[in-house]
Amino acid sequence: MKLLVTGGAGFIGSAVVRLAVARGHQVVNLDALTYAACLDNVATVADDPLYSFEHADIRDRAALDHIFATHKPDAVMHLAAESHVDRSIDGPGDFIETNITGTYNMLEAARGYWVGAGRPDGFRFHHISTDEVYGSLPSDPEVLFTEDTGYDPRSPYSASKASSDHLVRAWFETYGLPVVLTNCSNNYGPYHFPEKLIPVVILNALAGKPLPIYGDGSNIRDWLYVEDHADALLLVVAKGEVGRSYNIGGENERTNLELVKTLCAILDQKRPKAQGSYADQITFVADRPGHDARYAIDPARIRDELGWRPSVTVEQGLERTVQWYLDNEDWWRALQGRSGVGQRLGVKA
Ligand SMILES: NC(=O)c1ccc[n+]([C@@H]2O[C@H](COP(=O)([O-])OP(=O)(O)OC[C@H]3O[C@@H](n4cnc5c(N)ncnc54)[C@H](O)[C@@H]3O)[C@@H](O)[C@H]2O)c1
Question: Which residues form a coiled coil (predicted)?
Answer without folding.
Answer: none
